[in-house]
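Predict structure. Chain length: 265.
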Amino acid sequence: MPAWLFMWTLSFAIFLGLKWITWWQARDRIPHDSWRSLAYVAAWPGMNAENFLDSRRRTPVPGLQEWLWASLKTCLGILLLWSVARRIPAQQPLVQGWIALLGLVLLLHFGTFHLIALFWQTMGVDAEPIMSKPLLSKSLGEFWGKRWNLGFRQLAHDLIFRPLHRRTGAAIAGLLVFLASGLIHDLVISLPARGGYGLPTGYFLLQGVGVSLERSSLGRRLGMHTGPTAWIFMLVVIAAPVFWLFHPPFVLRVIVPFMHAIHAL
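Prediction complete.
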């Protein structure tokens, strides 16, 4: 199959497998209606099964401002993907692909997934958006632990960190979480691209080392956990090696052909 279709197939297979695991673990502990189980597996990108399934939990109905903000992010993603990217000269496919990647993230993770969360909240379901204003992060630990992709964060905490941290210590368990994230990204990014192997794993291991350094006594003495130093450290560690995560083989062999397939180019 085309590389981009292989990527999406792997992504959905992993997603549904992890969904099943989290549902299976929560199914007997949480009182829930059968429709919630189906909705959790098929119509919700988050991984906090206990909150979503629990029919006793109540959540405030979102206001108009939340709906407008989520819609704006969705529209901006569409604009980047189907309008801005095609205005870049064909001789610069990496730039085209990176703009498309940004558009996809805005369209899906920040926009559409936020709209889905608002829909379920309106229905009385405790569905927290998976992105919690990551641009407001004040440290690397806050970015990865409290604001970026809370669906994976919850999953990693339940399946990796919580079972291991008492035996290995919090620092090692945290590094293993980042290692798992890197391996999953390598699987869905490097394998379809047939290149760049190990770069996504290296990126996430670097994030884990950065978080450990930030929380160490040396990091605290250097002010890495709060204030301007922490913010600059976070920005450098996240942004400087980002080409390891979305490396050129992935952009050129997967994203650019995908853009052609959806008529974005």
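Summary: The mean pLDDT is 93.
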